[in-house]
Design brief:
By secondary structure, the protein is α+β, with helices and mostly antiparallel strands. It has 2 domains: about 150 residues, no CATH class; about 90 residues, no CATH class. Helices cover about 45% and strands about 15% of the residues. The protein is built from 8 helices and 7 strands; from the N terminus they run ββββααβαααββααα. The protein has a 3-stranded antiparallel sheet. The protein starts with a strand and ends with a helix. About 15% of the residues are buried. About 10% of the residues have low confidence.
Length: about 240
């Protein structure tokens, strides 16, 4: 059968077809994958010179090269394509964690390169993955990440036995001027300790408990909000109360 190879990059790729004659390895011919074109190759060429090549496996991994009919190449080919896709997605998740730790949309340096939901635009992906990425693959990663985040995945927390959670990511720090007078300083310290305790309690709650608390505080939120975002909303309100 023929394998359909799509080159989503901005430059052509050359596949040297090697042969062995009298014990000597030489180049019989080259196949060119033109930029933004679909090329037909034999399954033999695919198995010998594409899927076994670290270079082309890497391009398949990040979506620069796509095998359009991978589902017709047998279970091993499908499993290989799925593994490469998962590896690329893991890199996407790692990039998202870095973006979040740097402030996400609140960071003016990042904001122009992020979508409204805080996920990276194609230009930011290109800069960090080091190669062109197929826009369709990038959109699949974005959709998958947003859906998983909505289910509470990819949070900067560690769950403890019993349900409590510990934040491991970047934390907001309020810097306040020193209070004049020893008595005022002590009161401030006690108030700060109580505030930190309330915030810790909020962070340990699950989504349903957070929703109940938010409703009691008469806070407005969308029903499909994530636990992370709702906790941030409640904490912000608590901090406002303490001012």
């Amino acid at each position: 059968m023929e394998v359909l190879v799509q080159n989503n990059g901005d430059c052509p790729f050359y596949v040297p077809i090697k042969i062995e004659v009298d014990g000597q390895v030489g180049i019989d011919r080259s196949i060119i994958f033109g930029e933004h074109q679909v090329t037909k190759i034999s399954e033999e060429v695919y198995q010998k010179f594409i899927i076994t090549s670290p270079f082309f496996k890497s391009r398949i991994e990040d979506g620069t090269i796509r095998i359009l009919n991978a589902d017709m190449l047998g279970s091993k080919a499908v499993e290989s394509a799925a593994a490469l896709n998962d590896l690329a997605y893991a890199k996407y998740v790692d990039l998202m964690k870095k973006i979040r730790s740097a402030g996400g949309l609140a960071n003016k340096d990042f904001a122009p390169y992020l979508n409204a939901d805080g996920t990276p635009k194609l230009s930011l992906l290109h800069a960090n993955f080091g190669r062109n990425i197929d826009p369709e693959v990038a959109n699949q990663f974005r959709t998958r990440f947003v859906a998983e985040a909505g289910e509470g995945m990819h949070e900067d927390t560690v769950r403890l036995p019993g349900g409590a959670k510990i934040e491991t990511g970047a934390r907001d720090v309020d810097v306040k001027p020193e209070q004049e007078g020893e008595g005022e300083a002590e009161d401030s310290g006690e108030g700060e300790a109580a505030l930190l305790k309330r915030i810790a309690e909020v962070k340990s709650l699950d989504l349903e408990s957070l929703k109940a608390m938010a409703k009691a505080m008469e806070l407005e939120f969308v029903e499909d909000i994530t636990a992370r975002k709702l906790a941030s909303l409640i904490i912000r309100a608590i901090k406002e109360e303490g001012k």
